[in-house]
Design goal:
Helix content is 36%, strand content 10%. The protein is of the alpha/beta class and 388 residues long. The chain binds zinc ion. Zinc ion binds next to strand 1.
């Protein structure tokens, strides 16, 4: 009876095939078999990495999306300081053109500066377009700092702050404690702060680390070579100065796990946009965890099918966010999320040596990512202007 044997083999093969996509892509230069003509060198001087810009001859449908299909909450906004009517009017005008209904000012501010921005926005008649987060000064943390920061957090929330953040990547990478040691993400001194955020039911928006390649040697296999060569401050591969990527992630996961009642929002998909299954496991383990998509569009756009499945599966946990406020860059996000366009450019060539593809998300998922999830975790955002 060969049948059961065949189906067992098929099942084993299917299991293998299912396991494959989870593995990192393992192609490395030099592993290809020899080919005729191997060893040839270019007859002309090869261009530098900066010079080679081939024109694409691909002819496929093109859909530019200057305005998002549904109103959007930008959970990761860094507008200029909203302290004058003129600046506020300019930002609102740019938001209107993009269909950005509400911007979270994630350049958190505290005390007087927070009160001033809230007041100025209200006086300008745009109180329904901005949400303000408070910030935590995590430098020189020592005994008693946690209680002090928690009290400040409570006062800022009373003054109108709707969340904490963005907590800077300096937390974990470079902030030192009063005793000179690196402030670890899971330092128990800060427990009262996170517990206060949980009690006040406000989200904590945290940026941990940077893309994993920033922690690696800057060699010609590093897919962020050019960016690292251009920006000295992004080089984190000196282990005598910085923890490793995995050390930071382990600290972060211990922090999240120890405070499961906090509504955590990871900036930049926790820097797991190149390994969405890893973020999925974190979502599975932590029901109060959310993540925001700022500045990682290049990773979603190179895996449109995997990203589509991930967004459908975790549609209740993902938030739109942009990070730097460059109005002309938002339409790239709309295009990746809303269309099925193929092989188009990203807005920064030093981020990505590849083209983008549209994910073609269904309306129901777009609505959750664009605004419904944000309205759920920041209930004080006015509902005005958002469809059901
Ligand atoms: Zn940011």
């Amino acid at each position: 009876m060969p049948r059961p044997v065949v189906s067992a083999a098929v099942a084993a093969l299917a299991a293998l095939a299912a396991a494959r996509p989870a593995a990192a892509q393992d192609e490395r230069p030099g592993q290809f078999r020899p080919r005729p003509g191997e060893g040839r060198t270019p007859e002309f001087p090869p261009p530098t990495i900066l010079e080679y810009k081939p024109r694409s001859t691909l002819v496929v449908p093109v859909h530019h999306v200057p305005r998002a299909k549904f109103p959007v909450v930008d959970f990761h906004g860094h507008p200029p300081a909203l302290l004058s009517r003129d600046v506020i009017d300019r930002v609102v005008q740019a938001m209107d053109a993009l269909n950005l209904r509400v911007m979270v000012n994630a350049s958190g501010s505290s005390g007087e500066r927070l009160r001033q921005q809230i007041e100025t926005v209200r006086a300008a008649g745009h109180a329904d377009r901005f949400v303000f987060f408070t910030t935590l000064d995590l430098r020189n943390v020592g005994p008693g700092s946690g209680r002090k920061l928690a009290a400040q957090l409570e006062a800022d929330v009373k003054a109108g702050a709707a969340g904490v953040g963005e907590i800077s990547k300096a937390f974990g990478l470079s902030y030192r404690k009063a005793d000179g040691t690196r402030l670890r993400l899971d330092d128990p001194e800060l427990d009262p702060v996170w517990e206060t955020a949980a009690r006040l039911k406000i989200p904590v928006f945290i940026h941990v680390g940077d893309p994993s390649e920033f922690f690696q040697p800057i060699d010609y296999q590093n897919e962020r070579w050019l960016e690292l060569a251009l920006f000295p401050s992004r080089r984190l591969n000196d282990r005598s100065r910085y923890p490793s990527f995995e050390e930071l992630m382990a600290e972060r996961d211990r922090l999240l796990t120890r405070h499961p009642n906090v509504t955590w929002v990871l900036a930049h998909l926790g820097w797991h946009a190149n390994d969405l299954a890893r973020l999925g496991r974190l979502f599975d383990a932590l029901p109060n965890l959310y993540a925001e998509v700022g500045a990682i569009l290049y990773d979603l756009g190179r895996q449109p099918r995997t990203a589509h499945k991930f967004f459908v599966q975790y549609q209740d946990r993902l938030l739109f966010g942009k990070d730097s406020f460059q109005p002309d860059e938002y339409p790239y996000y709309w295009r990746v999320f809303e269309t099925e366009d193929e092989y188009f450019d990203y807005y920064r060539d030093y981020h990505a040596f590849w083209k983008l593809y549209g994910m073609g998300l269904p309306d129901s998922v777009l609505k959750k990512v664009y605004y419904k999830n944000a309205l759920k975790i920041i209930p004080t955002i006015p509902r005005k202007g958002f469809p059901e």
